[in-house]
Amino acid sequence: MQVSSLNEVKIYSLSAGRSLPEWLSDRKKRALQKKDVDIRRRIELIQDFEMPTVSTKIKVSRDGQYIMAVGTYKPRVRCFDTYQLSQKFERCLDSEVVTFEILSDDYSKIVFLQCGRFVEFHSQHGHYYRTRIPKFGRDFSYHYPSCDLYFVGASSEVYRLNLEQGRFLNSLQTEASESNVCDINPVHFLFAMGTAEGKVECWDPRTRNRVGLLDCALSSVTADTEIDGLPSISALTFDGALNMAVGTSTGQVLLYDLRSSNPLIVKDHHYGLPIKTIQFQRQLDLIISADSRIIKMWNKDTGKIFTSMEPEHGINDVCLYPNSGMLMTANEAPKMNIYYIPVLGPAPKWCSFLDNLTEELEENPESTVYDDYKFVTRKDLENLGLAHLIGSTLLRAYMHGFFMDIRLYHKAKMMANPFAYEEYRREKIRQKIEETRAQRVQLKKLPKVNKELALKLIEEEGEEQQITRKRKQKNLPSLLKDDRFKIMFENPDFQVDEQSEEFRLLNPLVSKISEKRKRKLKILEELEAKGEEEEEEPEGKASDAESSESSDDEKGWVEEVRKQRKLLRQEEKLKRRERSKEDQQTLLKPQFFEIKEGEEFRSFKDSAKKQKLMKKTLEDRLKLEEKLGTLNVSDTTVGSKQATFKLKKSEQQRKQQEAEKQHRQERKTLRRSANHLKSKRGRGRLFY
């Protein structure tokens, strides 16, 4: 039996420990019990209280003698007799059970709502009748005065099946698209249903008219809750004539008084999981609400947590045994859990021995070995003045220290430090002072690189935090704490150059803002140098100056851009003048180059042309060769390209051709001059 305690409430898990397989013989079971201590100490309250794979629903009959559970696989129902502490019968079903209801005081009349739209009735001997509803059902309730079954599900209608007449009656037409849960008040028989839109509709079965509508989705959203979508109703139950508890799909439980449309209290499970079941414990005015992860017990008047339980496996259903402290759960595991909480009430009659067992455990609590010893290091012993005990029987060496008796430790500590109370008092005073300091503007250390950028980011983070608090959003991660941008504030190569042209044009107001930040940086550096963390009033004055000048900055940003442009032009002119002066001052000296052996000197223009030509692409070079006539590209009949090249002539051939060409031109000029003289002589003869 496993014992846990939360808020000083003892919870005994009666199903903890390993279970023995059914196919083992009695002889082997006895042998295992002798060998294994855990098996010998376990408590099997009800024999074979489990399902083959998963249990989905669990209920107790009104007479308290029978516990019925449904599960898989295969789909089945098991009935356990508490007087015999064993299983009474087991029945297999055709499809999985969504929910079921015990109509009689014992197990003689049971109704099952199954997945395939089937409604199956069982009597004491077994299967009795089976029918079908038009749409898939999710929940149903039984109205005792009229013998009507009300079915809700994936439809806007509520189907009514009268068990006395054996026929379906006119259905109730609702405004909801789908309904998830329903319940009937046991006092005045008001029918209530929870919809997928997060509303609760209340109907009077006598007149078949709607008498009330509650918008629980709107009421479930409070200042502390965070939801991702529209909450739908997942659980609904009545307590007495006036109280009603509603569970949402986002993990909130709302307690209503039927005379008011506003909830009395809203309790959040803080897991964001749908509420599975809600139960009332009237002796202590508690509400037991459960989702798939945790079972919480809390006071219905104040909302204060009484205790909670977190089983190892997911929870499907919770059943509180009437007028007792026993709690049973259906889980996503074969074994169904049984818990006993003595504070809630006594044990049931069929297991009254649990009270005596728990009383004995409380009288003789098991203390662990290390509760009476204190682990101390060698330094702790020197501070207490007990270093001379090393090696004696009063200290037991263990790892990097020693175990010593806790009583000896307390005595030595009182003798070594008689003013422990004064130290405690000083520590408390220091904590109070730190709390008040935390409310002031704290001094923040800035990095060595990009100090102004870091100060800007800190200011923006402060503004974003205020906005997120107002809008109740999650805070974004800080850029200063991000490892990806850490080097930007450590490496000087990433220093922002505020004098560059791009920076000044992109940030027109950077001059005024930078001045303000520089003031802050000077104040922070002075405070760091002096070490006075408390005196931070100058920083506050700077913030006041910022607020007063912010409107002027917003109005004159155009003028600031113009000023920056003028300043940049003036700086460029000054730079040009300085360059021209430097050029005039510098004297140009001739440079000499040495030519390698076996090479001829060529002009610098030819080498520059060759370098430019080598930098060009192949396409540009081919076009240039075509213009010069050394390359001819033509299309063939097949569709391909044909290129013909002319070889470049050597330097000697080129010089020879130039000499021949020059010689031919000289001969032509001589011929022309001779012909011209001849013609002149002939004209002179004719004239004379």
TrEMBL record:
GO terms for biological process: maturation of SSU-rRNA from tricistronic rRNA transcript (SSU-rRNA, 5.8S rRNA, LSU-rRNA). It is found in: Nucleus, Nucleolus. One of its GO terms (cellular component) is 90S preribosome. Residues 553-584, 648-663 have a biased composition (Basic and acidic residues). InterPro entries: Beta-prop_NOL10_N (IPR056551), NOL10/Enp2 (IPR040382), NOL10_2nd (IPR056550), NUC153 (IPR012580), WD40/YVTN_repeat-like_dom_sf (IPR015943), WD40_repeat_dom_sf (IPR036322). Residues 1-364 form the Nucleolar protein 10-like N-terminal domain. Residues 369-417 form the Nucleolar protein 10-like second domain. Residues 529-589, 633-688 are annotated as: Disordered. Residues 664-688 have a biased composition (Basic residues). Residues 633-643 have a biased composition (Polar residues). The keyword Coiled coil applies. The keyword Zinc does not apply. Belongs to the WD repeat NOL10/ENP2 family. This is Nucleolar protein 10. The gene is Nol10.
